[in-house]
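Protocol step 4 of 6: structure prediction from sequence.
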Amino acid sequence: MEHAQDSTPFVRSRRFVVGAVIVGIALVVTVGLIVGGMLRPADPVASAPAPTPSATPAASDEPAATPAPPPIPANTTVYDPATLAPLDVFAVNPSLVLDDDPFGALTGETARPLAAGAPVFAEPSGQPIAFLPRDLTFDGTTAPVIQREENWVRVLLVGRQAYPSQGSSAQVTGWLRAADVEVMPSEAIVDVNLTARTIDIVRAGTAERIATDFGSGVAETPTPVGRTYIMTTRVEPSFGYTRGFPLVYLAVQSPTLDGFGGATVAVTAFHYHDERSGILSNGCLRVDPAAIEKLAALPFGTPVVIRP
């Protein structure tokens, strides 16, 4: 009995200790779980990184650039001028090329042969068809440029491809080698409107109206239309109708007359005339004294565009 009584405190003490240990372990586990849960929360399911979309070029409305055509090859052949037909106002040369764009753009430049002159080509790839001297009795050697290339310039020219009775006498063109000419800026352009009955001198985009009426060609001998240029300017005392004012001759000739006044040419010109209103001439443009003086002051080679 005494042993049982004596062992009771021990048993109770051991139970206390064991209980305390169990409680302690439980607390440690619980705290560990809590602390572990704070320090290491349950890892979520790892998701694969979102793929980066590849850049897709935006569609462009712009057409692909067209490569510039290669320059027309140069021609360095030396030609003997004596073997080529001279090109002047009297020339009738079937190899000359008619202007295929009579109201086309101009480059704003003129070209004049260097040295003695320049061979003229129908096409840069061919052989020369004529020779344009630097100086001519009736001028016409300073010509407007209508197309410019690295090695070539295309210009308006004097002369005719044919007489009107045998073909066309419209404005002719040709190619000159860039090495054979000096190129200069044009000072102005003369704009004639046959319907509106106006003549303007245009400089740097600014138009000066010099006529609001003038005389022009009748149906049988019409004033030629399209682009041409001032060939020469001179006073001809034998032409009494000009009253001593200068005539400003153009490079283009009559579309219906083979010749005029006994000559083998029928050159169109601006000139003074007492009768200068309406449709009444052989193709020339009849203007008043103020207009002809302003036109006569323009340099040779000045482009003239005559609109219907």
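Step 5 (inspection) to follow. Residues 1-51 have pLDDT under 50 and may be disordered.
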